[in-house]
Amino acid sequence: MPGITSFWSIARTSCAGQIAAGLAIALGVAAAGCTEVNGGAVELSWKLRPASSSLPDKFVQCDPGQDGTHPVTRIRLHWDVGGEIGTAAWRCDDNHGVTGFDLPAGEALLSVTPDCASGPADPVTYTAPAPERRTVNPGDTVSLGAVELVLQVSYCGLQPCICE
């Protein structure tokens, strides 16, 4: 329409307009992408193994499928950073998890446990790795690597089994 000028028509026709349009877009993207990070994150993956080698498979699924067992529903990461305690949990079938940047900075004691549909698994039904001490820095991710949980899934009539 004659006589009506838009920002975009100026941007298309003048060098100064193109620079202004580019700066406006860049500032908008930069402002939208900035997030203040005050904590650190933790990344881990996990595998489940049977406690007994009598099973033909050396790994078990989150639902072991053995008589007397029920599925492990979640894998939970616990942390204690200078007395500040927290947890994060992921679906067991995900086999991998990363927290948000939620952990405070400092020396963290990190541990991993399985959860059942009814709540935390009974500690006598699994063996987890020893807690690890790691330094958490704001904006950094601590990697626990691959964690192996050993589950009691056989001889369930004679001893407690996972998530029974």
Explain what this protein looks like in three dimensions:
By secondary structure, this protein is of the alpha+beta class. It has 2 domains: 34 residues, no CATH class; 111 residues, Immunoglobulin-like, CATH 2.60.40.1120. The chain is 16% helix and 38% strand. The chain is built from 2 helices and 9 strands. The strands form 2 sheets. Strands 2, 3, 5, 6 and 8 form a 5-stranded antiparallel beta sheet that branches. A 4-stranded mixed beta sheet has the order 4-1-9-7, with no helix packed on it. A hairpin with a 2-residue loop joins β2 and β3. The longest helix is centred in the N-terminal third of the chain and has 19 residues. The termini are far apart.
Descriptors:
alpha+beta; Immunoglobulin-like; four-stranded mixed beta sheet; single chain; 2 helices; 2 domains
What layout of secondary structure does this protein have?
Layout: H1 7-13, H2 15-33, E1 41-50, E2 72-81, E3 84-91, E4 96-98, E5 106-116, E6 119-120, E7 126-127, E8 132-136, E9 141-151
Parallel strand pairs: 1-9
Antiparallel strand pairs: 1-4, 2-3, 2-5, 5-6, 5-8, 7-9
In short:
The chain is of the alpha+beta class and 164 residues long. Helices cover 16% and strands 38% of the residues. It has two domains: 1-34, no CATH class; 41-151, Immunoglobulin-like, CATH 2.60.40.
